[in-house]
Structure formats: structure tokens, C-alpha cells
């Protein structure tokens, strides 16, 4: 969702020495503007929680750095905690980017709180290498399985190197950053808030797996919970790969071109009277071509792996499709310099270092959680071939991470081993988009089937998580859930008010819904399009 400072790779453990026990009350104060830089009236606090929840004899604690946007209406109805996905997405910067939108969606009557989960930001950052050269060597090997006929074996070997390096350097840290401890951290924050002892939570993308886990571990402490852009937690913990995640990816990719043809005035690719299928085939031909003849751009190359990664990242939100169309049109016209400013070599290298921070956080959390492992290349190959068969656009983007997790050597101090047949004190609202290339609607339905009394809200549009799709219907449905606890009728489908290649934003939708379009348009910058474009983003 954001680019992270490479210096975080060298950050130390945020530890203090105080005895575990009942969480102290949180004292809010001014935020450090170098870390939480916003004009919004946000405040911050630190909370010390047990470093290792399984060791009752230890007095070591971990510092969670919290950020809060207070309710705009008084009195506050309590606090809502957020996790923005990944795993590996820092919470505080994500809350800053989306705070005004989330405040509108929650009715302005709750305090909104987020912190950097274990393994991310300043909270027990996970890294496997000591210097930039080692990190760059790792990043240079993040090629995709179909890049050549020898890549699959090379990926397996590289994953083995990374798994061993992580075990050698970060075994202790890696054992403390799993999702089960993340769930306990959420409840520690709830205890310290000293409200009603109940969790109110909105999890997006991987945050739905965290939410499903905390709900299964603490079902009697769930007041309200939205799981939005739902990941299949069964596969997350117990399979060689997240197969179900990619079942809608190719349809979303095709939507880039059908949307282009439907709005030719806003799409640079829409010329020559080509159909959507013809445009898509031209782009696939280009991707195949750069496998053999990469295009030099600035300090790097646009090759097969790079072009596929670009496509994968543009499945998150339609907000980036017009710019993608400009880039693709320039490439297809033989003028790559017109696709945008070329970064110099220094910027290119710095970007790789920044991306490595999230990549290692994702790997450290996800691989520790995943129970199924093997040292046999032959054993994992059927799963990798299954990925390739599920999705042309995403199948080979995900193989490297799956191979690393299969060979992972770090065991978490605690892994959630239960099922997801759950009766929560109050029912959960699941949300899924009809065309979500990262967490398909089928996952929301599958997970909801195990949560007694839960309901799935479907949002009929392209994008990852409901907040990527401006919709008056979603605004009304979600805000009523937070304010009144009212679930939508089973089978409800919300339309969207921002079709692909339009300029409609959440500011317009919220302004129209409130009857005060002018005031919302003045705040258009707070509905940060790049933030929505990268919501839940992970480097796979």
C-alpha cells in the first residue's frame, strides 16, 4: 500500500522489560509527525503487550505503536480496530491514508485505531539479510515461473536459500510474528482500551484471515466485525498455495479491456476499432515478446516477470486502469519512453530495497503460519501446476512465495490449529466484490458458511475489497451495520457508482449521499486514489 523505508530492515526489536498481566489503559497524545504525518486530528500511543504469549514466566514485552482518529460525533460509541492486509502492510500509515473514507463508512461515531502488526513497520520487523547487496540478490531472483523453461527449478533452489537464511538470522523473531499472536495483540488492545471488553474490527484482505482467527479464538468477545475481501483461511494455513484466491483473476484482467472498449474516451488503448478480446490478445502477445526481447527502461528492464507483476498489481483497483492503458499503448506503439518518467538507477534500486521490506514481512508471517511443508521439489510440483492452470495472469506470480513457505524452517510459538465453524456472540458481516482478482466472492461465501448467523454482502464491480468501489449502497449498508448492528438481507448485491475508466471517486459518492457535494469535493485529496489502488497489496 505504501513504500517502506529500507532503513526499517535494520530496526531493532521494540522491546521493553515489564511484567505481563492486565493491559494498562492507553494514554493518547500527539503523534510523531515523522511517522504519522497528517493534517487530520489523529493521536497516538504505545502499548506494551507480552512478547511471547505462550511463556507466562517471561517479563519481556513488545511495544505496539497505535494511531487513532477520534470519532467526529460525540460521544464515541467505542473503537474499531483495523488490519489492512498483506500480510505485511503497516497499519498506521494505512489508517492515515484511508481515515476520512473509513470515518464516513463507519458513520463518524467510532474511534478508528490501527497499529503496525508484528513483523511490519517498527513492530518486530522481520528480515533475513544483513546488507543491501544480499537483499538485492534476493529481489533480483523474484522472477516468475513461466519466465523460462528452467525457472521453476531455480525458484525452488532460491526459496531454499531464503528459507535457510531466514532460519539462521531471524528464527527467534520469526517464531513470534504469526497470526495467532496477532489475534492476541488485538485483544490486548481491546483490554487496554477499557471500553466494554468487546472487539469491533474491520479486516481487509489478509486482515480477514486475522479476523476469522481472532473470532474463532475469542467468539464470545465479538461485538461487530466486517471481513472484507475475504481470503480462504483453510488454504492459508493448510495448503501448499492459496489456490482459491486466483479463481477470478483472469476475468478481472479481461475487465481492463472490456472496460476500455466501453469507455473509449477515457482509455488510451481504445483505437483501431479492436474488440476487448483483440486488445487483450495484443497485450498477451507483448508480454510473451518481452520474455525474449526485454525493453530497457531507466535503471531496469521491462521483461516477462516485470510486465506480469505490473498486470498483477493493477487487479487491485480500476483507479489505475487509465494510467495502465497509457503505458500499454506506449509500449505497443514502440515508444516506451512515453509511458511515463523513467526512474534512474538509484531510484530503481531504492524501490527494490523498499519493496523487500514488505516482501520479507509477508514471507515471515505467511510462511510461519503455513503448516504444510516439504523438502521435495517433486512433491510440490502438482500444486504449482495447479496454480498455473487456475490463472494465466496470476498463477506464476505466486509460485515463488509458495515454494518459500513449503521449505520454511521457522516454527511459530503458536499457530491456530482449530477450524472455522464458529458461533460468535454477534454475527459477522462478510463482503466480497463480484470481480476481485485477489480474493474472489466465492471465498466470502465459503468462509461465511462456517460462521453462524453471518451474511455476505456482494458488491458488483471490479476491485479488491469494497472500499475500492465507490458505492452509495455500500456506504448505506456498512454504516447501518456499524451504527445499528443491522445486517443486510441474505443475497443482497450492491451496485457501484464508479464504472471503470470513470473519474468518479468516493468523495463524489459520499457528497451525493450526504447532499453536500461541494464540501466533500473540497476534501477529494483525503480519498487517496493510490491508497485504494494498493489496498491489501502484497508482493508475492
Automatic annotation (TrEMBL):
SUPFAM superfamilies: alpha/beta-Hydrolases. Residues 87-234 form the AB hydrolase-1 domain. Residues 393-494 form the Peptidase S33 tripeptidyl aminopeptidase-like C-terminal domain. Pfam families: Abhydrolase_1, Abhydrolase_4. Keywords: Hydrolase, Signal. The keyword Iron-sulfur does not apply. GO terms for molecular function: hydrolase activity. Residues 1-18 form the signal peptide. PANTHER family: 2-SUCCINYL-6-HYDROXY-2,4-CYCLOHEXADIENE-1-CARBOXYLATE SYNTHASE (PTHR43248), AB HYDROLASE-1 DOMAIN-CONTAINING PROTEIN-RELATED (PTHR43248:SF25). Belongs to the peptidase S33 family. This is Peptidase S33 tripeptidyl aminopeptidase-like C-terminal domain-containing protein.
Amino acid at each position: 500500500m505504501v513504500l517502506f523505508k529500507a532503513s526499517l530492515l535494520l530496526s531493532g526489536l521494540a522491546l521493553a522489560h515489564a511484567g505481563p498481566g492486565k493491559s494498562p489503559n492507553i494514554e493518547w497524545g500527539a503523534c510523531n509527525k515523522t511517522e504519522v504525518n497528517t493534517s487530520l486530528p489523529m493521536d497516538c500511543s504505545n502499548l506494551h503487550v507480552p512478547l511471547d504469549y505462550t511463556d507466562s514466566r517471561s517479563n519481556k514485552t513488545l511495544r505496539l505503536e497505535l494511531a487513532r482518529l477520534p470519532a467526529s460525533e460525540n460521544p464515541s460509541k467505542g473503537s474499531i480496530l483495523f488490519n489492512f492486509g498483506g500480510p505485511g502492510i503497516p497499519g498506521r500509515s494505512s489508517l492515515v491514508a484511508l481515515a476520512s473514507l473509513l470515518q464516513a463508512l463507519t458513520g463518524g461515531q467510532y474511534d478508528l485505531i490501527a497499529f503496525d502488526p508484528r513483523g511490519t513497520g517498527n513492530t518486530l520487523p522481520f528480515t533475513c539479510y544483513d546488507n543491501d547487496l544480499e537483499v538485492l540478490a534476493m529481489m533480483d531472483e523474484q522472477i516468475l515461473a513461466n519466465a523460462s523453461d528452467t525457472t521453476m527449478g531455480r525458484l525452488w533452489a532460491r526459496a531454499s536459500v531464503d528459507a535457510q537464511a531466514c532460519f539462521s538470522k531471524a528464527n527467534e523473531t520469526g517464531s513470534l510474528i504469526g497470526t495467532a499472536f496477532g489475534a492476541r495483540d488485538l485483544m490486548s488492545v481491546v483490554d487496554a482500551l477499557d471500553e466494554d471488553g468487546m472487539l469491533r474490527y474491520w479486516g481487509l484482505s489478509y486482515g480477514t484471515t486475522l479476523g476469522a482467527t481472532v473470532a474463532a479464538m475469542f467468539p464470545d468477545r465479538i461485538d461487530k466485525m466486517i471481513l472484507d475481501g475475504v481470503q480462504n483461511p483453510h488454504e492459508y494455513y493448510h495448503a501448499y498455495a492459496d489456490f482459491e484466491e486466483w479463481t477470478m483473476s483472469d476475468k478481472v484482467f479481461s475487465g481492463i479491456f472490456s472496460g476500455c472498449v466501453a469507455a473509449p474516451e477515457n482509455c488510451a488503448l481504445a483505437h483501431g476499432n479492436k474488440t476487448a478480446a483483440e486488445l487483450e490478445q495484443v497485450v498477451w502477445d507483448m508480454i510473451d515478446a518481452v520474455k525474449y526481447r526485454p525493453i530497457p527502461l531507466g535503471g531496469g528492464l521491462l521483461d516477462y516477470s516485470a510486465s506480469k507483476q505490473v498486470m498483477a498489481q493493477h487487479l487491485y483497483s480500476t483507479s489505475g486502469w487509465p494510467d495502465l492503458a497509457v503505458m500499454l499503448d506506449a509500449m505497443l506503439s514502440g515508444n516506451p519512453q512515453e509511458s511515463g518518467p523513467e526512474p534512474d538507477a538509484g531510484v530503481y534500486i531504492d524501490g527494490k530495497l523498499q519493496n523487500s521490506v514488505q516482501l520479507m514481512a509477508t514471507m515471515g508471517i505467511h510462511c510461519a503460519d503455513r503448516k504444510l511443508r516439504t523438502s521435495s521439489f517433486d512433491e510440490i510440483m502438482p500444486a504449482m501446476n495447479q496454480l498455473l492452470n487456475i490463472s494465466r495472469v496470476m498463477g506464476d506470480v505466486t509460485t515463488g512465495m509458495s515454494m518459500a513457505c513449503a521449505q520454511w524452517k521457522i516454527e511459530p510459538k503458536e499457530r491456530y490449529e482449530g477450524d472455522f465453524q464458529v458461533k460468535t456472540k454477534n454475527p459477522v458481516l462478510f463482503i466480497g466484490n463480484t470481480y476481485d482478482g485477489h480474493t474472489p466472492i466465492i471465498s466470502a461465501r465459503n468462509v461465511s458458511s462456517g460462521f453462524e448467523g453471518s451474511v455476505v454482502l456482494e458488491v458488483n464491480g471490479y476491485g479488491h475489497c469494497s472500499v475500492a468501489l465507490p458505492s452509495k449502497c455500500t456506504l448505506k449498508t456498512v454504516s447501518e451495520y456499524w451504527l445499528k448492528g443491522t445486517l443486510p438481507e441474505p443475497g443482497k448485491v450492491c451496485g457501484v457508482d464508479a464504472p471503470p475508466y470513470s473519474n468518479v471517486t468516493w468523495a463524489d459518492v459520499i457528497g451525493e449521499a450526504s447532499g453536500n457535494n461541494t464540501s466533500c469535493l473540497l476534501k477529494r485529496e483525503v480519498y487517496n486514489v493510490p491508497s485504494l489502488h494498493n489496498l491489501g497489496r502484497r508482493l508475492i
